[in-house]
Amino acid sequence: MALSWMWGLGLFFSVQFSLQYGLFGLLTFAIPNALGLMVFGGLTQLIAKRAGNGPDALGSFFANWSRPYRFVFFLYQILAITLTVFALVRYGWQPLGLEPAGLYLLLTILVILAAATLFGEEFDIRRIKFSHGVLGLIALGAIGLLWVQLPSIGKGQPIMTGANPFLGLNFWGYAIPICVGLTLGPWLDLQQWQRAIQIQREGKSPLLSYLFGGSLFFLLLLAHGTLALWVAGQLGGASMREGIDGLAYGQDEITRFLWGVAALHPWAFGAYVVVLFVMTLATLDSGYIALRWHLSKSGGAGRPFPLSLLPEGLLASPVPVLVFAGIFTLAAVYLRLELEYFMIFYATFFVGYAALALLRRRHCAAQGTQCQPPGDGVIYVVGKGHGRMSQVICTPLSRKLVAVTGDSGIVQELDLRQDKAGLLAADLCVIAAGR
Known about the structure:
Structural class: alpha+beta
Order of helices and strands: HHHHHHHHEEHHHHHEEEEE
Helix content: 55-70%
Distance between the termini: 55 Å
Number of strands: 7
Strand content: 5-15%
Oligomer: single chain
Number of helices: 13
CATH architecture of the largest domain: Up-down Bundle
CATH topology of the largest domain: Amino acid/polyamine transporter I
CATH class of the largest domain: Mainly Alpha
Strand order of the largest sheet: 3-4-7-5-6
């Protein structure tokens, strides 16, 4: 889970935030990121216990809870996959300046998408822990190789710690949406939900798993951000470039620095490229598996309405999403766009939905797995006058509460918003009072 959460935002924006605001900025970015994963794991374990504590309790809860947001889950995953491909190409490949640029750009994107498809097809959610375990060991070996190469590359200068930006309005303009967005981020991520459901099905603890994964993720962010600060220290300051909007960007500083010394230290540059590719691949294959799960009938979340209009053969395939990600990357790299442009959409549109989803989660968790959308024919039993019990059947016919009372058969229409039986999720509830 630590590898799959190291997508474009964690992998490259940690460099930007570190260069702009120093070590304080890096910690401000890394801590809420890691805490978001840990809290997600703890709360999903709590949800599973309240939903029945069976092997499929969390899966059943997610199937019911996520239905109103299934298209939002789909959009979120498209964004994650697209930004991951875009970030690797924009900040890991484009700074190399290889020619012919157009041909190499197309081939690079095709290789990335082909690798994601291959791993996504070969390893399902039950076996992904083995592939990610191997990828993690490869990344760990590459990190170690890069680490031992750094003394011979650098000039012996310390890392750039930067000034404390705590009182700067510009810092908080970044920090507040980042903290909120990344803390809520896992709740709309199909990859994390699928992984938590599988952990629970295997009888393991989501809490312990996400505590370990969140801690490992924090260390990876800290290592990458510290490497950026070390590079800035060797250069005598942050080496930022000017974007098309006139602002300073530095997500590719490490790539540019190591590429500049690649002739003398090829192993260092190669190790860094391996780390970038492993992190990207771990996100893309997880996204491929999660999308296939989401789009299939057995995925629990169902199919988004617009997709139901497409041919049947495409409905359960993540390949169209990867094709879209590739086309988008081609256009975005050609236009020299930046990661921050798309973070605006992430930090506004999705954060609102994540907050609403969490409120719905609280309501659903209080009912166990009985969190059906209107019209599912769910039957509730509530108290109704003089100690009698009433059977409540919900159907999507109107916004009124129809009560059939006593032996008289009198029908009363009540405003649903004034109902005190806790049935606010229903469109129409027919209450047949018992004797």
